[in-house]
Amino acid sequence: MNSERVQDLGEDIVEMLKTIYDPEIPVDIFELGLIYDVFVSENNDVKILMTLTSPNCPVAETLPVEIEEKVRSIDKVKDVEVEITFDPMWTQDMMSEEAKLELGFL
């Protein structure tokens, strides 16, 4: 049952991430491929591993804070940590088909 509960919470987190948009690109951060992984512990602590479109991204300071606040607002979530990595570097290939279509890459 615990793994089901963790999976449900993971799905809630992904749905929340899909409400957060990159300010320069009209696509949510999940479909853009900026979210590399979402870890949910048995205690409902959440760690999100993500990247930015570039190291000089203008929202490098604010986007992780927005993600942390929105994910923390989910009832079952206890704590949230957002870690930014540039390994691997983000490329347009990481975008979902939906995002590529939205941006005219298909």
TrEMBL record:
Gene3D superfamilies: Fe-S cluster assembly (FSCA) (3.30.300.130). It comes from the Bacteria. The lineage of its organism: Bacteria, Pseudomonadati, Bacteroidota, Flavobacteriia, Flavobacteriales. It holds the Pfam family FeS_assembly_P. Residues 11-84 form the MIP18 family-like domain. InterPro entries: Fe-S_Maturation_MIP18, FSCA_dom_sf, MIP18-like. This is FeS assembly SUF system protein. PANTHER family: FE-S PROTEIN MATURATION AUXILIARY FACTOR YITW (PTHR42831:SF1).
